[in-house]
Amino acid sequence: MGITTGREWQRLTADSDEEEEDESSFVESEATVDTCKKWRNIAGFWLLGLCNNFAYVVMLSAAHDILSHQKVPGGNGTRPTPHTTLTRNFSNTSRYDCNVISTGAVLLADILPTLLIKFSAPFYIHLLPYGLRVIVCIFTALGSFLLVAFSAGPAQSFAGVVLASISSGLGEITFLALTSFFDSAVVSAWSSGTGGAGLLGALSYLGLTQAGLTPQHTLLTMNIIPVVMLASYLLLAPPPHAPRWGWGAPPPPLHSPSSTHQPLLGDAATFQNKSQIHSISLQEKGKVVKGLLKYLLPLAVVYFAEYFINQGLFELLYFKEAPLSHPQQYRWYQMLYQAGVFLSRSSASCVRIRHIWILAVLQCLNMVFFLGAVYFMFLPSIYLFFILIVYEGLLGGASYVNTFHCVSAESQPEHREFAMGVSCIADTLGISLSGAVAIPVHNYFCCLS
């Protein structure tokens, strides 16, 4: 048995210290890389939410202009020009300043294709790679802006709105499902991004038309958004098992993953659970949907009420004494609503609401109040109405972000991707029903003398 000298002991101790320092620096380096990737993914999903909903929001903000088919010169939409193809007055005796067609018709064109996609997607969407879906979203968004910008009539405009709906619907079900492969923080980022789309989309349309651009030129400048969507998707740094471009997740590795193949945000157990291909039977899907109804039904009610207000009642609330024309007032309504949505969709890190039905009740009370305001015309000031619109948007945004957080938290790991994808049907169904109801309600009010 050898005797260790003092010099040898110092050498061994130094070697041990160096190994500990190397290991410590390696761990710190890995932690730094994971943190960078986490923020990179959060930024990517925020931008994806922004770009995905942008065209949809712009079409709703431009609904009054689309139906009036106005070529707005320097007057910012204050007067129709000879190009106008739809008469703005529903009848000469009506007490309301009405378009021939309700803006609810634009809402239906903007939401029915989305509803069709979301209802049918669970049967085939898993067969399509994420990359292909994103490419379709990009080209349909580009087509929507171009078709509406160069529209020669309402039919072409509605075709452009339909393309915007396809882009938004396919994008929502795609990116929400993709969040299941990342840390739960990206759900808040996605939700905040969709709220930002509402605010920036409505604000940019309002601002550019107020600055003197025609609706046509305003829409053409927005073709940059689909390009940003592609860049945002490429920005993501997914775990190795996330099926970003391929036709599905690769089979799990035969050996335990090394440190370089650990998930970006989670432990090895999370990686193994998500890497396994779990085929969900139709019976399992039914059970998952049944368990989600306590969140999905209130969400559908919230969106029915708020979009009935937005596309059925907004255009009828025209304040003649205000310093804004009718088209300008409508654009301000849409922008303020989206501002409220953005604020509440970005609040998930501060406030969590599990009882979505409370938000549904409050939004239904809003709908009844606005309906009375249209019929009796008792609102004294447009500025009071502005405040009420922001409140309406706050309720809608809060219901959206809290619903998806609850769904994500309560779903089993093997069901989460399906649950997140199918949950986005609820708001779309509520919006579709509101558009169908808004048209006859619009016609009823516009026939009143």
UniProtKB/TrEMBL annotation:
GO biological process, one term: lysosome organization
Stretch list, region Disordered: 1-27
Major subcellular location class: other
Stored InterPro entries: Battenin_disease_Cln3 (IPR003492), Battenin_disease_Cln3_subgr (IPR018460), MFS_trans_sf (IPR036259)
Acidic residues biased stretches: 15-25
Family: Belongs to the battenin family.
Protein name: Battenin
